[in-house]
Amino acid sequence: MARPLRTLLEPRAMIVAPQPEAVEAGAAMLAAGGSAVDAVLATAFTQGVVDPLMCGIGGLGVMQVFDPASGAHVVLDGLSTCPAAAREDMWADVFERECSDGYGYVLKGHLNELGRTAVTTPGILRVFEAAHARFGRKPWADLFGAAIGFAEEGWMIRPHVGGVMLTNEVAYGRLAYAAKLALTPDGQKLYLRTDGTPKRVGDLVRNPDLAAVLGQLARDGVESFYTGDLAARIVADMAAHGGLMTAADLAGFRHREHMPMVVSYRGRQIAMPPPPAGGIVIAEMLRILERFDLVALGHNSAAYIAVVAEAMKIAGRDKDEHIGDPDFHVPPLEMLLSDAYADAAAARIRAGERADLSRVTGDAKHTTTISCIDAAGMVVSLTHTLGVPSGVIPPGTGFMLNGAMNWYDPRPGRAGSIAPGKRRFSSMSPTIVLEGGTPVMTLGAPGGAWIGVALLQVLLNVIDFGMGMQEAVMAPRFSATTNAIDVSNRIPRAVQRAVEALGYQVVRSPMSFPFAAPHGISCWGNRLDGGADPQRDGYVAGVP
What we know:
Number of helices: 20
Oligomer: single chain
């Protein structure tokens, strides 16, 4: 008997990401029979070509994989590490202040943001290698075709990329991106116009050097990056310009594999990466908010915003106080996620107490994400980044290295201080939701310290308020990563006045879709439903 037409047309696999070229690459890999990991890696390599300030092979990231065929459920951690030459007090005498928005630290000469001294040991390729070896179906070399094609043939500057290139963050204590694009001759050639200004929307970028590097990785594997020819080229550039990273740092880097950190919320299991990734912040907020009838408060009402904002502030304060690299500071996860702690926090909120969160520091806003579910039920969520891009393109390679030294506190004796081999806390939190052990949702977001608060609201929108995924990622958001509450320009002004009447400072964003950029897929009843945040340029692709 013929299947109904609607069923025939429904996708059996789906992928979502913030770049259209990258989504194309992932969808093509799914259509060719690749696993969700294959599709995510093809997408990620393409993202590094067409979103070069957000991510790339010189970056870092975290991936979560659920594979029903093998029963595996793992987090692969490729967060970068401080080079061995780094010392806790090496920049103490040039420290000026924290960035005013909380994203990093200001040094005289911007040593931690621009140039070779800003670079940490990249980890993302080790994650890609491990994920493919364990969960890939297609040959490694097949994952690079789309990325190499876009690098060779060129791609057009999209609105979001163009906006990033024109960004000037001097007001926050960081540099204009034009300075980073102009740092190296390769950057000038790739991303600047003849008049020295950044390329604009519609301009073409061709990157044959990156195409050649990707071809080398496809042929020789990632070992070339860590111990082979590519490593030698990177290290030579570091040494010639006073960089911290050495051949030993690259050769010694190893990704970490963890069990996901899982908390229960309204009968579902929310699986997130453990520290130093950002799942703990979301987990703590969910534990507190489960003590409230959020639906009765009304979605995005003044009362709802106040309750959720207090949970955000409590979790943010606890992150600042307790969470760092577990190799250096053991986090009190059992205490923070206990019933007693959540009960006490909820009681303080009900009593009208206000948590004090004077400042939060987190990763840069320039990050990207991918979520994918394949026809066999494998679920993958990846978030990866350059941190604050360093501007460093090793000669003839076409890719930029991360600038994640900006994340480390240059003041000695603090949880986030510099130390050889140390990983900095990252808000990145690729997430999978399960119901009775079966995945029903996957999501992730770029957006620095806003990642946790944005993913929290998408989870609440779906689980508490029954929204579809696209509606959930589009719904107006708010944020409390300081004592002020920031609100989207689509939060009604009457609601803003009501929140202010409760005694809060409220800051209205001019943006319609601010505070990170969630992308996700739900699969209730095996029916796939995707959502792409409209502020980025990507979309959802279903594959029959």
